[in-house]
Design a protein that fits this description.
The chain has 90 residues and is mainly alpha-helical. The protein has a domain of 58 residues. The termini are far apart.
Amino acid sequence: MVTRPFSPSTQVDTPDVKRRKINGAEYDFYPGLLDEANVTGLNAQYAESGPYKHAVVPSLFSDDLLKAVKNEILENVRFTEKETDIYKVY
């Protein structure tokens, strides 16, 4: 395998600008969602569903995560209304 040297602008030892995610997927989902008993129940629900295959997950994400996402959006995302004679965009 042929490798090229790094470009001069790329520093190998520089820290990442973005924080790395250090916790697992279980943190983002509702507690107990990935437990064996719950997964077995969801599999059975999916297998028995009809006329279309589906399973209902009542609580997918933890409430703390959803609140944190809402707060981050409200603090960091800016929307400006734009309107023409044809449409209105937010």
